[in-house]
Write a structure and sequence with these properties.
This protein is of the alpha+beta class. Helix content is 35%, strand content 23%. It contains 16 helices and 23 strands. The strands form seven sheets. The protein has a seven-stranded mixed beta sheet with strand order 17-18-16-15-21-22-23. Strands 3-2-1-5-14-13 form a six-stranded mixed beta sheet, sandwiched between helices.
């Protein structure tokens, strides 16, 4: 009997391959970063060929570290940065343009034009998504309109569109030699081309965004036998696909309506399982597909998407040079008692949930001569907690549910000061699981369920364990003072750009 499951975790800044055992424990992992291309202000691109090369290299390296062969894997699952958009040539296998990343804002003007034409509410009602530069449809339209021959190839079916899951699956299963052109319902729900109710590509939306149907992938369940991998993963079943935040929801075993998780990565993503109910938000949240296992009905979720949290720490490191590693931000933050009156709104690409203000830009407020780089680091960590507070408040309004705990995961949950401040500002318990790599774990769970590696969701629930719980320890007066200043900082970030 095969004892392991593999997960490809393709994120905004790096690619990882993780091998899990039957207990959901990490056996081995390998990781490689990829380049962030910023050809113009507000633009962000990735090289698809670099990404697939890193997928193959990390898979090979992780198998070596685990001292196993590909044949020892029962299946593999894919989880990925979601809205990032690729269009590639079916015949050559080459991308027609670098991938346009979910944070990229080059289509802001097109968003504004569609809103002025009255399309915002009809699009939201059908897709659960607001008109925003965040999603894939307008990014794809930009490529079709700006890359020579791209539209003609797409109309003929000679150019294939996909989010990163599709690009990886196609390459893993044969590429130009019969590669599978597929995406799962969670990733499809982030393109702004999917009808949430039918879970099919919507002809009216394809017409609105001028997207040829011939270039679209087939939509599948999140957990299902899809195909067989080749090369480094020769013969292994590809059986799971989930967008990264939905994968984290699965990895945190939030299978019941009302259960929620928050992932701290490049951005923050808070998801609340709403079961079979499609709850359209009146408070600036996204309605999305949470997962679909086999032939079972799909589960849905409310999501609050925050563009820049870990990305702010990366900015302190790469752009300002005031820290050398992410851990340095933690270390410096703990050398000061508070933020020194400094608040950072990291609206590098506008504000996402619950504000959805493309005109916003980043600000640092409250600076005095007293402020040091330690205060900046503390303010950067606290910005993640404040943004999460805003999303959680909106989620309570939309769902009527006031959570008593928040399950957390992602790279930033290693930050003790952030986790304590998050508990303080939310005034609820914050719980970190034993296995914090829940995004990759969710992809592994999806693949494992499809091939019978795990018997069902009850078995997965039984494996979940808490590592640490933070409890609130802040007076209401101090909490209110912080939130008041945060709201003032948000107000100062608005109306910076005009459409």
């Amino acid at each position: 009997m095969k004892s392991y499951i593999g997960a490809i975790d393709q994120g905004t800044t790096s690619t990882r391959f993780i091998v899990f055992d039957r207990a959901g424990r990490i056996v081995a992992t390998a990781q490689k970063e990829h380049a962030q291309h910023t050809p113009k202000p507000g633009w962000l691109e990735h090289d698809p060929s670099e990404i697939i090369r890193n997928v193959r290299e990390t898979a090979a390296e992780a198998l070596i570290r685990a001292n196993i062969r590909a044949a020892d894997l029962a299946a593999i699952g894919i989880t990925n940065q979601r809205e990032t958009t690729v269009l590639w040539d079916r015949r050559t296998g080459s991308a027609l343009h670098r991938a346009i990343v979910w944070q990229d804002t080059r289509v802001d003007a097109a968003v504004s034009a569609l809103a002025r034409a009255g399309h915002a509410e009809p699009v939201r009602a059908r897709t659960g998504l607001p008109l925003a530069s965040y999603f894939s449809a307008l990014k794809l339209q930009w490529i079709l309109d700006n890359v020579p021959d791209a539209r003609a190839k797409a109309e003929n079916g000679d150019a294939l569109f996909g989010t990163i899951d599709s690009w990886i699956a196609w390459n893993l299963t044969g590429a130009t030699d019969g590669g599978l052109h597929v995406t799962d319902v969670t990733n499809a729900s982030r393109t702004q081309l999917l009808d949430l109710r039918t879970l099919t590509w919507c002809p009216e939306l394809l017409s609105l965004f001028e997207v040829p149907a011939a270039c679209l992938p087939t939509i599948t369940a999140s957990s299902a036998m899809l195909g067989t991998a080749q090369l480094e993963l020769e013969g292994v079943a590809l059986a799971g696909m989930l967008g990264d935040q939905q994968a984290a929801l699965v990895g945190q075993v939030c299978f019941a309506p009302g259960e929620a998780k928050n992932t701290y990565g490049t951005g923050n993503f808070l998801l609340l399982n709403t079961g079979a109910d499609i709850k359209l938000s009146g408070s600036g949240l996204i309605t999305t597909v949470a997962y679909r296992f086999g032939d079972a009905p799909a589960a849905y979720a409310l999501e609050g998407s925050i563009a820049n949290t870990g990305a702010l720490i990366q900015w302190l490191r790469d752009n300002l040079g005031i820290i050398q590693t992410a851990q340095d931000a933690d270390t410096l933050a703990q050398t000061v008692a508070d933020n020194g009156g400094v608040y950072i709104v990291p609206a590098f690409s506008g504000l996402y949930a619950p504000h959805w203000r493309a005109d916003a830009r980043g600000v640092i407020t409250g600076l005095t001569r007293y402020a040091t780089k330690a205060h900046l680091c503390r303010a950067a960590l606290e910005a993640a907690a404040y943004q999460t507070h805003d999303v959680a408040a909106a989620m309570t309004v939309d769902s009527g549910i006031t959570p008593t705990t928040l399950r957390v995961d992602g790279g930033m949950v290693r930050s003790e000061p952030l986790m304590q401040f998050q508990s303080d500002i939310l005034n609820i318990d914050v719980v970190r699981p034993t296995i914090t790599e829940t995004t990759a774990l969710g992809a592994a769970y999806a693949a494992g369920l499809a091939v019978g590696f795990w018997s069902g969701t009850d078995a997965l629930r039984a494996q979940w364990q808490a590592d640490r719980t933070w409890q609130p320890n802040m007076s209401p007066q101090i909490r209110d003072k912080h939130l008041d200043r945060w709201r003032k900082a948000i107000a100062r970030s608005l109306d910076w750009e005009s459409s």
